[in-house]
Amino acid sequence: MKISNKKKKYFQTESIVLNLFNLGEADRIITLLTPNYGIIRAVANGVRKPNSRIGGHLDILNKINAYVRIGENLNNLSQADTIDGYGEIKQNLKKISLCFYILELSEKFSVENDPNNNIYQLLEEVLELIKSVENDELLIRWFEIKLLISAGFLPELYNCLISGKKLKEGDHVFSFNEGGLIDYHYYSESLNHSIILKKTIKATRFLVDNNWSNVNKLNISQKTINDIKIIMQRYIRTLINSRVNSETFLSLIHNN
After folding, report:
1. pLDDT score of 143 more than 50
2. Which of 15, 105, 186, 210 is 20 to 30 A removed from 38 (C-alpha atoms)?
3. Domain 10-85 top-level CATH class
């Protein structure tokens, strides 16, 4: 990431650690999500040494104050202080699996040097909610939808993407290639389509239009939550043209 102000040599930012990659014998490349710069990747020199001052702060999922020195090719993380280590989450394997999933999605849908990064605020909110939420499956579905909104990929849920006409109430078809709903009579087994029930459409629209406090009061069946999950995760795979790596771990933990 390059900062436009050439006189600026370093900056400080709140951030959440999304990923870590070993570099050489003692260094790491740290991937951070920030509220004002989007994704930042920086080298933390000597961080894997036992006497490193900042190594203990650079755990995946930690919220930190990061002090970044700007480089020509790679930035350097010179200092880090933990704001929240999310200890309540890290003691619970199911919660950790949820967090790995949302961290990976946050990274895939964020961009570098993005001053209007609503994804950071969304991730921060959901991490706080995961600490104590009971209906975590519904929370993750809400997160997926709000993430798609923030990234500009919200699927069309009201008008047919083929005819352009407003959809009548009822069962319809989700076209993953088109990016939303189409009228039922356009369904084709040979295309990237999936039938979506009326109650699933209604519930998805509610998740789009409401904050978590309202969604948390929603009386929604587990089947409908699962139907939303299937649609959203398949749509996300279509957008990124690959599977989400943490999906396998998430499914393994939550199906046990």
Report:
1. yes
2. 210
3. mainly beta
